[in-house]
Amino acid sequence: xxxxxxxxxxxxxxxxxxxxxxxxxxxxxxxxxxxxxxxxxxxxxxxxxxxxxxxxxxxxxxxxxxxxxxxxxxxxxxxxxxxxxxxxxxxxxxxxxxxxxxxxxxxxxxxxxxxxxxxxxxxxxxxxxxxxxxxxxxxxxxxxxxxxxxxxxxxx
Amino acid sequence: xxxxxxxxxxxxxxxxxxxxxxxxxxxxxxxxxxxxxxxxxxxxxxxxxxxxxxxxxxxxxxxxxxxxxxxxxxxxxxxxxxxxxxxxxxxxxxxxxxxxxxxxxxxxxxxxxxxxxxxxxxxxxxxxxxxxxxxxxxxxxxxxxxxxxxxxxxxxxxxxxxxxxxxxxxxxxxxxxxxxxxxxxxxxxxxxxxxxxxxxxxxxxxxxxxxxxxxxxxxxxxxxxxxxxxxxxxxxxxxxxxxxxxxxxxxxxxxxxxxxxx
Lengths: 156, 262
Fold this sequence. Notes:
The structure holds 2 protein chains of 2 kinds. By secondary structure, chain A is α/β, with parallel strands linked by helices. Chain A folds into 2 domains: 1-34; 36-136. Chain A has helices at residues 2-28, 31-34, 137-150; strands at 39-46, 57-60, 63-73, 80-87, 97-102, 109-114, 126-128, 130-132. In chain A, strands 7-1-4-3-2-6-5-8 form an 8-stranded mixed sheet, with no helix packed on it. In chain A, a hairpin with a 2-residue loop joins β2 and β3 (63-73). Chain B has helices spanning 3-40, 42-52, 57-79, 88-126, 129-135, 140-178, 183-193, 196-224, 229-260. In chain B, α6 (140-178) crosses α8 (196-224). At the A-B interface, α1 of A face α2, α6, α7 and α8 of B.
């Protein structure tokens, strides 16, 4: 009797511990997007990725469809090559475009895809040709300041 | 105050400390072969998991819930200044899984279960039960010490995972119920920022190391205690003090390595 109760409570304890780990992995972490069997890889070249980081979301119409796998530099063109892992259930036309956007004014950066109109679709290893680089706030401010400084005081 | 006596007192303490470390290492080396034999008799280990793990569950769940709720309140008050309260879920989840879950669980375990392990083994020694076993040609290491060591080692990582999970639920209740944050934002920020391989597995690795160290210190101090009531009480105190210091020191080293390794 006594031993049964002990064994039952230990079993319950172990189950609770493993359930907690499963909850942390599934609900708190993002293991379901990491499953490489369900994604295909697409690359896109950007002139400037800003502060985009691996694991940043890839969205279309604001809905998450994948994530950034890695960011490297092309040794010839010096462009940033961003590899995107996209869920297999979403297919994109070959003339789709990718742009790097910021969530909120200072939020994290993500890749936004806009689908094109072609009948042919991107496959694994495909390349998105139309890209728009990250908007870097400091550059815009400095451009604005220079253009203001260039104007004569009387005109503005 | 005689400086020569003071310096020789310091030297005596250092030599005693090194001797203690050496005895602990030799004890671990003797314990290692007994570990397999203890697993073969799993019922003893299960019994000890009940004593150390299941009975520590209440304090871990209650502390985890409170720590999560406190993190939510404190984090909200700081983040709201930068208008970043949407990151509260991420802040709480990273703090708990990386740091507070493993460390606080190990500290609580050292106080609740580690001290009890030391006192139990020390009293067995003081009342000559261990000597009695040896007289009957029963080696106390696989029979008494190894099951307790296994139980502590197994229980700490499980308790740490429960601590983190309960803490996140507690933070969710405060953030969504009391502070009026959006539940969807709370979870989605968490999921986009917490990495399973780095943050959650890193926390798990930490708690496995803490479980090993705390259990080792607890059984060693019990086995090494002077067989008197005063000796057992000193050994129990030493278990809590040295476990806590070892946990925090190792945590610093492991955190430094894990953050560099990214």
